[in-house]
Write a structure and sequence with these properties.
The complex is a heterodimer of chains A (321) and B (175). Chain A is built from 5 helices and 14 strands. Chain A is of the alpha+beta class and 321 residues long. Chain A has a domain of 39 residues. In chain A, the strands form 3 sheets. Chain A has a 6-stranded antiparallel beta barrel with strand order 3-4-7-6-5-14. Chain A is globular. Chain B is mainly alpha-helical and 175 residues long. Chain B has a single domain, classed as Arp2/3 complex 21 kDa subunit ARPC3 (Orthogonal Bundle), CATH 1.10.1760. Chain B is 65% helix and 2% strand. The chains are: A alpha+beta (321), B mainly alpha (175).
């Protein structure tokens, strides 16, 4: 008894440390409709989040008034510039659409099945983990909005991460691709080499499992491979920033993320994906020879004799480009 | 009468403070919330570990080892709740900081800004060391340490401590 009285402070310190060490070993989890969540986390997040969400919305309102009613300088010039840019994009899109149609037709011929984004939910980022050892985001959408664990989170620029936990109707937690525990199946667009993009404790992305005898160039674009069965195929992940020979026969490929992961304010959660065979939308079945004839220089065709016996136009077949 | 100058830090002169319940509970919640949620809009707040600064402040003000370590444990566990790492990583580190800060608090002049700066710098490094050791040895995580970056973070947090502690002094109630 005397011992405890004499060393009261040290005993309390030891007890508190021991309790936390035990907590590290045994982590209590609670089952929620959206998946298992640690009870303590559930309570803490739901206590803190409403205040922060209100603050964010109040700030958003003020910003809305400023941006939409006050800060409209240079809007006309910007509008003209955007119109010109839009025309350029429309031209490029027409060309790409034709290429995509052709790719889809060929894929359909080969019977490929792909995951397509069917439905997304826009969510606002309301918080982070507050530490560098966990790269997480908190979103203002949760179970009521259809958010579930393991759903992909993206922006129009590329992949952000995946839903790690859903804490209730209106809050969920996202694990960023830069977190040390994160991994995404990836493909290099030009060489079609496949690997896994992993995060690291300092938030840097690396492309792993590319053999040392392969050639990877800085600036190459990396997209999702779809092999992890979470992210749909073809979403931008980033670009190769640096390549060096790594350990264990693999290349050490550093990646610059496509999305500014530490400056995110809004994201899209993919709540529904459908697996379907790509179809040549609205296109009648065409023969390969017809497709080729559209793309090759025209050759004058010998005109078929008309039933009426009128003289055929010799230049008719040469009108195709 | 010319008396002998007694050092402010002598045992007889050590001043002990307490805090109201709303401050004791609400301030840690507010600080951890600020640390986690504010950087989304205010990126310049990202480097600050407000939970650590508050742990040090409470420990040196109350000067009770038990209250210091319990405050550290409470704030640390609260931070653990917002991460994806197991509970206890920040809890253990801040418990030790709370205990250590109180021990230092009764031995030196903690009202002096330069002392506060140095003390926070040292405790930031200690906290980081415990967090990294726990993550590596107990959790089995890969860790990353950049001396330049962490030194910069320690300096920035120490500067913030000097400013923040002078603000928080207004909340102290003399026992």
């Amino acid at each position: 008894m005397n011992f405890f009285k004499r060393h009261e402070n040290a005993v309390v310190l030891a007890v508190v440390l021991l309790a936390q060490l035990l907590a590290l070993a045994v982590q209590v989890k609670r089952q929620t409709p959206a998946g298992p969540v640690t009870l303590l986390r559930l309570v803490a997040v739901n206590t803190l989040a409403p205040f922060e969400r209100s603050a964010i919305y109040l700030g958003g309102g003020a910003r809305h008034v400023w941006n939409n009613y006050v800060d409209l300088l240079h809007v006309r010039q910007e509008n003209l510039r955007l119109k010109a840019e839009f025309e350029q994009v429309r031209l490029a899109r027409t060309r790409e659409l034709e290429d995509a149609r052709q790719a889809h037709r060929l894929q359909a011929l080969l019977g490929f099945k792909e995951k397509w984004i069917d439905q997304t939910v826009a969510a606002q980022v309301i918080g982070t983990s507050g530490t560098e050892s966990s790269r997480l985001l908190y979103l203002d959408k949760g179970g009521r909005d259809g958010i579930r664990v393991d759903q992909p989170v993206i922006t129009p620029d590329g992949v952000v991460g995946k839903v790690l936990a859903v804490f209730g109707d209106h809050i969920s937690q996202v694990l960023l691709i830069s977190d040390a525990t994160s991994g995404v199946g990836a493909t290099l667009v030009s060489s079609r080499l496949q690997g896994i993009i992993k995060g690291s404790p300092n938030g840097e992305l690396t492309l792993n499992y590319i053999m040392g005898d392969e050639t990877v160039h800085p600036g190459e674009i990396i997209v999702t491979s779809g092999g992890d069965r979470i992210f749909p195929k073809g979403l931008p992940l980033g670009t190769v920033a640096k390549v060096a020979m790594g350990r264990n026969l693999f290349l050490d490929v550093r990646v610059k993320p496509a999305v500014p992961l530490n400056r995110l304010e809004e994201v899209l959660v993919i709540t529904s994906q459908v697996a379907r065979e790509p179809e040549a939308a609205g296109q009648p079945h065409v023969r390969a020879s017809d497709v080729l004839s559209q793309h090759l220089p025209g050759v004058p065709q010998a005109a078929a004799p008309s039933p009426s016996g009128a003289a055929p136009n010799a230049n008719q077949g040469a009108q195709k480009p | 009468m010319k008396g002998i100058r007694i050092s402010y830090t002598s045992r007889e002169q050590v001043e002990v403070y307490r805090f109201s319940w709303p401050v004791s509970i609400g301030l840690p919640l507010a600080m951890v919330g600020l640390q986690a949620f504010a950087p989304v809009r205010l990126a310049f707040l990202r480097p600050f570990d407000f939970g650590l600064l508050l742990t040090i402040f409470f420990a040196i003000s109350r000067r009770s080892p038990v209250s210091g370590l319990l405050t550290g444990a409470f704030i640390g566990l609260l931070q653990d709740c917002l991460t994806s790492t197991p509970f206890g990583v920040f809890g253990i580190a801040k418990t030790l900081v709370g205990y250590g800060a109180r021990s230092i608090g009764v031995a030196i002049d903690v009202e002096n800004p330069s002392t506060r700066f140095l003390m926070t710098f040292v405790f930031y490094v200690l906290h980081l060391g415990v967090v990294l050791a726990t993550e590596h040895w107990l959790v089995g995580q890969q860790i990353h340490f950049n001396l330049g970056h962490e030194t910069g973070m320690a300096v920035v947090n120490a500067l913030m401590a000097v400013f923040l502690f002078s603000l928080l002094n207004r909340l102290k109630i003399r026992v």
